[in-house]
């Protein structure tokens, strides 16, 4: 009589049946993430096709930078904020207005718009300033008025400190200059974490960014309404995995960069500095940031715009233009003069 095969102990059979739903769930989740990554990659490619470069390219130290150059006259360099690109300045109308009397050069900073951001470099404000400074040298630009908005202020300041020959005046709009406790920085930095961040930025982050976009824009512009002209900003470019990584990395660097720079601000006394910020900025505390910088630089001017939020160049374009004229020392035409509240 043939012996019957021994049945597995009940405890092992139980473990097998218990683990099976988890394996199935893991497989479904992995498949969903894979599909999401494919969809997001295609959406990113479509965004780039629909929003081709509007300017030219320059290769600097092996990095391909996209820039727009308009107008003639004294040079004016525009550096956008975190998560943004040249199109922000273009949609605001600032480039068109400034080009009437300046040689305007607006860069897509590394990783934004159509500019590269090699992963071999940690793109601190100083590293970006070195790159922009070298680009300006190739373009034959010296003694420029440099405007930075938000994170772009950090790059503008680093450019003035480390490449003084390139900068004759600074216009700092809605900047962050001193380290502070920022819980939002921690959450925004996730896609910059090696390996885990790469998964996030190709799968969940683009989806979450699209869902949060209406809330984010209201926070950026508030209490001002989001202007109709901002419809020209190509938001789909913001949701690309490459740009999400750049934005997350800059969120992670924001506080340490400010901590490293604050002891050097006093060195900016040799050039005009115009500081401008919205009184109702919901992103940064302007008293703790712009007001404090103004106190450290007694020769600077500080213009507080009532009823305006973080996006001063969009909501109060003429006021920003007036600050540029003030810092550069170039008189505006009578039709462009606008009083700035001190």
Topology:
Layout: H1 10-50, E1 56-60, E2 63-70, E3 74-79, H2 86-92, H3 94-98, E4 102-107, H4 125-138, E5 144-149, H5 151-162, E6 167-173, H6 183-188, H7 196-202, H8 204-221, H9 235-238, H10 241-261, E7 273-278, H11 287-296, E8 301-305, H12 312-315, H13 317-328
Helix pairs in contact: 4-5, 7-10
Describe the structure.
The structure is a single chain. This protein has 342 residues and is α/β, with parallel strands linked by helices. It has one domain: Rossmann fold (3-Layer(aba) Sandwich). 47% of the residues lie in helices and 14% in strands. It has an eight-stranded mixed beta sheet, sandwiched between helices. α5 links the parallel β5 (144-149) and β6 (167-173). α4 (125-138) packs across α5 and α7 (196-202) packs across α10. The longest helix has 41 residues, at 10-50. It is globular.
What are the main properties of this structure?
single chain; 342 residues; alpha/beta; Rossmann fold; eight-stranded mixed sheet; 13 helices; globular; disordered C terminus
């Amino acid at each position: 009589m043939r012996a019957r095969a021994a049945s597995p102990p009940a405890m092992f059979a139980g473990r097998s049946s218990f683990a099976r739903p988890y394996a199935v769930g893991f497989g479904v989740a992995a498949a969903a993430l894979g599909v999401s990554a494919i969809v997001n990659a295609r959406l990113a490619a479509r965004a780039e096709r629909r929003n081709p470069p509007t300017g030219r390219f320059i290769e600097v130290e092996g990095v391909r930078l996209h820039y727009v150059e308009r107008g003639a006259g004294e040079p004016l360099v525009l550096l956008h904020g975190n998560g943004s690109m040249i199109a922000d300045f273009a949609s605001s109308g600032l480039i068109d207005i400034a080009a009437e009397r300046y040689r305007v050069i607006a860069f897509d900073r590394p990783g934004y718009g159509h500019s590269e951001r090699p992963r071999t470099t940690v793109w601190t404000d100083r590293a970006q300033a070195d790159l922009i400074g070298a680009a300006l040298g190739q373009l034959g630009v010296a003694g420029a008025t440099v405007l930075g908005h938000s994170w772009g202020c950090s790059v503008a300041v680093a450019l003035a400190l480390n490449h003084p020959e390139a900068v004759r005046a600074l216009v700092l709009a809605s900047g962050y200059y001193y380290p502070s406790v920022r819980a939002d920085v921690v959450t925004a930095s996730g896609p910059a974490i090696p390996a885990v961040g790469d998964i996030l930025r190709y799968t969940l982050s683009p989806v979450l960014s699209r869902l949060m976009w209406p809330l984010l824009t209201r926070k950026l512009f508030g209490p001002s309404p989001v202007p109709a002209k901002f419809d020209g900003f190509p938001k789909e470019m913001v949701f690309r995995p490459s740009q999400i990584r750049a934005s997350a990395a800059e969120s992670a660097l924001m506080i340490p960069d400010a901590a490293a720079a604050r002891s050097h601000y006093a060195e900016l006394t040799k050039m005009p500095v115009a500081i401008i910020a919205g009184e109702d900025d919901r992103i940064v505390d302007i008293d703790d940031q712009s007001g404090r910088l103004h106190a450290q630089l007694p020769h600077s001017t500080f213009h507080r715009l009532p009823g305006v939020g973080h996006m001063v160049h969009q909501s109060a374009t003429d006021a920003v233009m007036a600050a540029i004229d003030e810092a550069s020392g170039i008189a505006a035409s009578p039709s462009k003069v606008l009083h700035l509240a001190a």
